[in-house]
C-alpha cells in the first residue's frame, strides 16, 4: 500500500494515457462508400469527341501522318473527313496576337483542337520555325490553353489562366 501511495501520480498519468490511446484505437470510424453516380458541374459534362475519320482507312492515314509528320511533309489530317471546321479565334489564347494568329493560319493551324493535339516534337518544330515568336508556345503554355478551349472548358481555362 505504501508503494501505491508514493507512485499514485504515475498511475494516474498512465491511466489517462491509456484512456487516450484506447479511444484513438477503438473509436468509430467514418464509413465511405464510393459510387459511380457523382454529380458533375456543368463545365465537367462530357463533350462529344471530335473525331477525324470514320473508317479504318482514315484512322490509318492519320496514324501515318502522325508517324511520318515532318519527314515527308504529308498533310493527311487536313484531307480527312471531320478534320475541317470553322476557324476559332486564336487571339483568345494568351500570348497569341493578330500577327502570330496570321502566321499560324498560313501554316494551316486555325482551330484550338489542332493546337491541343500537337505532340511535343511538333510544338518544338513549330516553335523553332516561328522566328520572332520563337519560345512563345512553351512560355505562354499555348497548347495547354488550346486544350481547355477545344474542350469548351471555359471555367477551367479562366481558373488557370485568368479571364478570357
Automatic annotation (TrEMBL):
Protein name in the entry: Helix-hairpin-helix domain-containing protein
UniProt entry keywords in alphabetical sequence: Membrane, Transmembrane, Transmembrane helix
Membrane-spanning parts: 6-26
Superkingdom in the source lineage: Bacteria
